[in-house]
Structures are given as structure tokens and as C-alpha cells.
Amino acid sequence: MPAKIKKEKQDKDSVIEQDLKTEEINSEETKEDTSQETDKTVEEPVFEESIASKLETEVFEYRDKLVRKAAEFENYKKRTSEEFLRLIETATENLIIKLLPIIDDMHRFQDNYKSEMKSEDLKKGIDLIFGKYMDILKNSGLEEIEVIGKEFNPELHEALLQVENPDVKSDHIVDQHEKGYTLRNKVIRHSKVIVAK
Fold first, then answer.
1. Sequence ranges of the domains in the chain
2. Distance between CA atoms of 86 and 37, rounded to whole angstroms?
3. N or C: which end of the chain has fewer CB within 10 A?
4. So what's the architecture of 145-197 in CATH?
5. Which residues of 58-67 are buried (b: 16+ CB within 10 A; e: fewer)?
């Protein structure tokens, strides 16, 4: 075999050897990369599991706080409604206690009534009891709505009729059919009135 051909064959063999070595090196690097990736994939689930457990703990804590707050709010609602009912009962009780002397006066009036009593004496007795009664209600905040000669106001008055009256201005009240009242500046009953055209 000539030397030239021999040399070419040796060159080819060395190139093939180098290619094989390069392939081996590349395959080793690939193995290292995949082993590192598998290490990473092994680490990632552990990391995700710890985050999941933290989130689960937080969710449990928030749910617990929410349940406690809801229970506290329910207790607060019950407590305030009971206090409100007690307040109403106390207010009613106080008013009734104030009215008890009127009931006593009415009983005394009934016990002392005689058929031969003069009508003036009866009227005086009734007026005294009624005056006492109205004083108690006024002290509790009740006020009578004044109407005669006043201009009609739908917030205070309820018109029953409109009549011609040359002595009274138009839209002013001529007469009152039923008295109206306010309780601490709130209308509790409108005055029923007759209004001039």
C-alpha cells in the first residue's frame, strides 16, 4: 500500500476518533444536564408543597377569624336588640308611672260623685284632672299643633274641606275638626282642618 493512501487512512481514522471523543464528551455533558434537571424537578415539588401548606394554613386562619367575627356580630345584634326592647319598656313604664296620679284622681272622682252635684263642680273636677294629664304629656314632649288662622301646611295639617270665607285669606285654616300633635318636634298626628279657598 502506498504511503499516501496509508496516510489518508490514518487521517480518516483520527478524524473518526476525534468525532467519537467529541460525541462522548457531549453525551457526558448531556447526562450531567439531565441529572441537574432531575435534581431541580426533585427540588421544585418540595418547594411547591411548602408554599401550598403555608397557603392552606393561612386559609384556615382567615376562615377561623371570619367565623369568630360572624359570631361576635350575631352576639352584638342580639345584645343591642335586647337593650332597645328594655329601653322601650323603661320609657313606657316611666310614662305609666307619671299617669298613675291621674288614674287615682279619676277613682276619687268616681267615688265622690253624687247625682245632686252641680254641673259646674263636675266641670271643675274634670278640668283639674285633664289639666294634670296634659301637663304630664307636655313634660314628656307632646305639643298641640296650632292651626286657627295659620296658613295650610301639608306637613302639619290634613285638609277635610275647602270653604269660601271672605274674612280669612286663601289657603288659611278656618276651623279645626280634630287636633294634631307633635312629639319632640315629630308629627304624630296631623290636624284635620277646614281651609279657606
1. 3-112, 145-197
2. 73
3. N
4. Roll (2.30)
5. eeeeeeeeee
What is the C-alpha to C-alpha distance for residues 93 and 125, in angstroms, rounded to an integer? 27
Q: Is residue 9 over pLDDT 90?
A: no
pTM summary value: 0.53
149 CB neighbour count, 10 Å cutoff: 10
- Kindly report, residue by residue over 26-49, the tens digit of the pLDDT: 666 555 555 554 444 445 566 677
Q: Give the Cα separation of 99 and 136 in Å (integer).
A: 7
Q: Backbone phi, then psi, for 157, in 5-degree steps? A: -120, 155
Q: Where are the beta strands (DSSP E) in the chain?
A: 142-144, 157-163, 173-178, 181-183, 186-189, 191-196
The Cβ of residue 132 has, within 10 Å, a number of other Cβ atoms equal to 13
